[in-house]
Design brief:
The structure is a homodimer. Chain A is built from 23 helices and 18 strands. By secondary structure, chain A is of the alpha/beta class. The termini of chain A are far apart. At the A-B interface, α6, α7, α8, α9 and α14 of A face α6, α7, α8, α9 and α14 of B.
Chain lengths: 587, 587
């Protein structure tokens, strides 16, 4: 790490010769390989951007010049060059930095970013403020080709194309989204690459932008030349660079999709250190859908650039053929698309994560729910047990989805119930349905499940008791079981255990009946409390003497939390809940 | 109406000669002018699309061939030609049809649509289902140039560009959004128009689409020729037609912005029949901002193609200069943009309506609130008193916005409080702030208002009482005043009247204190109950003996409702509320 140790800030790069810069790139790549193999993280995007990051920091004067990384999952080299190299070199410091850009860490970072397609708009904002203040410097957005298909990015490009001020948009074209790209614009990127940027039909120019192409996106010298040319430009320009995703690690170069993100692995062989064992809903759902597709040509799965959400590997995608649609990073389009498919008699299933479904509020409301088309939305990683980066939390989907009229949002409590709900949803013709995929492992139990969920908002009393009723939503059902046991054990209370099943409505009849021999109702949900399920139950009982206690996460943006700690802070452990109930009993 | 009376369904058009088709266009235009002048509605878009609608219905075989209108505010001629002409001719039937496409009215309509930029995605869905079912017909999306800047439309174009199936995208280019277009792509549309579609740099081709241009977009014969050419095509194609917005009414041809939408007016002079009198928040806010801009170059207003939201006429836009940014129809971009501006020391204010802010959930959450940048969002028409079309309801913003962490959503109760909050918001540096513009007229009263709202979630006790506390949110404060009076009058109860001010948090101290001498708390909010403000209060008191009753609209998509009826159905009249409280007193 001879050279790396000399770079404490980006300006130190200017003391190095070209040869040394190239050597530095190798050092950075080595550091990345070491950390990624031990720690896991975004692999391909970071290995591909080493040279471009060095070149940008060589040419531009960060943090006066401001670089905004899209998704920011390719910002590791940037972090290394901006004073944070120890977090990549020293194993005990690995977690001192997040996996995304983070202004709390460094003045060289401007936003906490994790979702795609935002960089051009955010950078446009920095540039606009610069101009209002009559300051002078470069603002640079770095965006991958995969992110370009997202509506926000395209809106940003279009906006930038009308401005008459400095804005440099580096399009890092590695010819990949997470999987292969989808969308017509990628044909144009290909034409541009193949014509060395000279093709007359040019998406960026059609958006009103100036344009320059650099074919050797992993060549520091060429990149420096190119960036020097656009530096201090008085109008927006796209710098289209052709990079190699996963560069420097053969397995990643050969299989870009598998190496977009990695868990800890053996550097020599590429084999994951911990094998993932047991069933998971992605594979189960995929196999169920493939079987369903065989018998019904109207069944179609829709994904938005994350085929792994449903374990659709390349091989399985081929198997599904026309009955699988990857729309690219375009969640808004995906929701409108499935609404249209459902309207015309198809049976569409759009699967995404809780964090990414956030991109579709208006489409869920307008395109889908007002029209009441029977599409199915599968919501994954919707849990405190999901991703724990602040930018990818899965705890907001209940407030976001469940308050939209006409939507039926289901919360299965077991494998059997999940598939029963999914099958019902695909076959019914009345409702837009979302299903919250359980996130506490694949739990299979003996409870009988219904096959028809068309009679909305009927909760299921799984175990009858008295005094205390536990409404345990979705995969918090198992927590409800534990609370029930603990109540029996500690307080001698035989509680009623209820599986609400429907997030989107109250079983007012059942809730009314509970008044007869219950004094306390508790609700358990895996997500934020505010705007969620439990609050509705509290409102229902507001004008009665029933005591209600809602359990969920307090509205917040926790970052890289430890699940058990977060639950404890929010009093969502069986011990704390029983303690609370004991107190309530004395009210 | 000689010819119009012969057209009961689109196929009847094929019995008419070209001359008769042209005469028919004049008849339709006459009908539109009559209805619009008496009833109001979207003016320019409909007058411009008469010929294209006739030509489409002449060439295509609706409803087997399926036409999806973007926004669908240009679908009046379509309605006239598809069996609904009486609703345009007979005054007493004017309201038999909605102002947008509506499958409940006709098999020729496929979606209830009102937001922009959705047609390509929805049509893609119809086409995909058609292909899965192995059926054969044309699917046509009709989208205006203004709608093209919206992310969902661009995602849709990009998706379509990869498909290998029939999809016809008619781009109705009238060189206008609601006001002038904004965005770089409009330079390309201009180049295309000026080169008669031959310009090599072509946005649509860059998106992977086939393309054809028709310069005479108000010439039925030419349009028929063009549509005949693309009919039954086996791949997606853009048909770019150049139309004249407001065609056939001179005033509208001359001032397209003012005639996008019209209230009832005098046909001879164009003068509105009812003059709008008194103060309104659009004008007041604009004047306040213009004054502010004069003294602080960092203040910048951002609008998304709806300058009238803040009464920014062309003249006033010029006055604001660089301190006003119209991003075009691109709300997602707008939110990220203001986040960037705020991050870099600017003072941005983005103003839009409750219905359109829905398009930005993820940007509010990710781009803005995670980053805690001090941008201001003004939310207008957020009320049952706002637009009452199902596609433009203003009753969902509280659940959507207020459950996002870090957001401070304020609900002013008077003109003085609104401007105090706005001023505080613009100058503070800590929080993303949204302000719900009062929607019950401009109410000015004697109450003192604070200037600093930085100490979050402190509710204001406006009138101290006991037994019953009324939490009257935002512009329902005046309803709270009425309820208080009525309670005093009818039940002799001197209630406490509270102005919560903060939608996004509970004043737990105050709520706790109320327990001392109050038995009943009611909450009043102008929006849906589910996920809203009142539920949080109910949850707070859930484990106590306080009785809570929440007033708001039950989750639903009411369409063209009468406000007083909707309020009554939801028991939100002072009489009903007092009746409920009387019952609760006996609990």
């Amino acid at each position: 790490m001879r050279l790396l140790n000399q770079v404490n800030q980006p300006s130190d790069l200017r003391n190095l010769s070209m040869e040394e810069l190239n050597e530095l790139a190798q050092e950075i790549r080595e550091v990345l390989l070491q950390k990624l193999s031990k720690h896991g993280g975004h692999f391909g995007p970071n290995l591909g951007m080493v040279e471009a990051t060095i070149a940008m920091h060589y040419v531009f004067n960060s943090p006066v010049d401001k670089i905004v990384f899209d998704v920011s999952h390719q910002s590791y080299a940037h972090k290394i060059l901006t004073g944070r190299r120890e977090a990549f070199i020293e194993e005990e410091k690995y977690d001192d930095v997040t996996g995304y850009s983070n202004p709390d860490e460094s003045e060289h970072d401007f936003f906490k970013i994790g979702h795609t397609s935002t960089s051009i708009s955010l950078a446009s904002g920095l540039a606009k403020a610069r101009d209002l203040k009559e300051e002078n410097y470069n603002v640079i957005a770095v965006i991958g080709d995969g992110s370009l298909s997202g509506g926000e990015a395209l809106e940003g490009l279009d906006f930038a194309g009308e401005q008459d001020t400095n804005l440099i948009i580096v399009v890092n074209d590695n010819q990949m989204s997470i999987a292969e790209n989808h969308g017509g614009l990628y044909k144009n990127l290909k034409q541009l690459r193949e014509s060395n940027g000279t093709c007359k039909c040019n998406l960026f120019q059609a958006m009103g932008l100036d344009y320059v192409y650099q074919n050797e996106g992993n060549n520091i010298e060429k990149l420096i030349e190119t960036f020097e040319k656009v530096k201090d430009m008085d109008h927006p320009i796209v710098v289209h660079i052709n990079t190699q995703k996963g560069k420097g690690y053969q397995l990643a170069e050969e299989n870009k999709e598998n190496w977009h993100f990695c868990a800890p692995f053996e550097l020599a062989t590429g084999k994951p250190i911990k094998a993932v064992a047991g069933e998971n809903y992605a594979v189960l759902t995929r196999d169920y859908l493939l079987e369903k597709m065989k018998h019904d040509p109207k069944v179609v799965a829709v994904l938005a650039a994350t085929p792994k959400t449903l374990a659709f590997t390349e091989e399985k995608r081929k198997l599904a053929g026309k009955q699988l649609v990857d729309v690219g990073i375009a969640e808004e389009h995906a929701v409108a698309l499935v609404s249209g498919i459902a309207k015309n008699g198809g049976k569409p299933i759009f699967a995404t994560s809780s964090s990414f479904i956030q991109r579709t509020y208006d489409q869920l409301s307008q395109d889908l729910c007002i029209n009441q088309n029977p599409a199915t939305i599968l919501v994954g990683s919707a849990s405190v047990y999901g991703w724990n980066d602040v930018t990818h939390l899965g705890i907001f989907d209940i407030p976001m989805i469940s308050n939209i009229p006409n939507m039926v949002y289901l919360a299965p409590t077991s494998k059997e119930e999940y598939f029963a709900m999914l099958d019902w949803s695909i076959e019914q013709k009345e409702h837009p349905v979302a299903i919250r995929i359980p996130a506490n492992g694949v739990v299979s139990d003996e409870r009988k499940v219904d096959t028809d969920y068309g009679c909305l908002n009927r909760y299921k009393v799984e175990e009858k008791g008295s005094k205390v009723a536990i409404l345990a939503l979705g995969h918090f059902y198992q927590l409800g079981e534990k609370v029930k046991k603990e109540l029996e054990h500690q307080l001698g209370i035989c509680a009623t255990l209820i599986n609400p099943r429907y997030i989107t409505g109250l079983d007012t009849e059942l809730l009314e009946d509970l008044k007869a021999n219950h004094e306390i109702v508790i609700t358990l949900e895996d997500g934020i409390l505010e705007g969620g399920f439990g609050e509705k139950v509290a409102t229902f009982y507001g004008d009665s003497r029933m005591l209600v206690k809602n359990y969920g996460i307090r509205k917040s943006f926790p970052d890289r939390y430890v699940v058990e700690e977060l639950l404890k802070e929010n009093r969502i452990t069986k011990e704390q809940i029983v303690e609370d109930i004991e107190k309530l009993c004395k009210c």
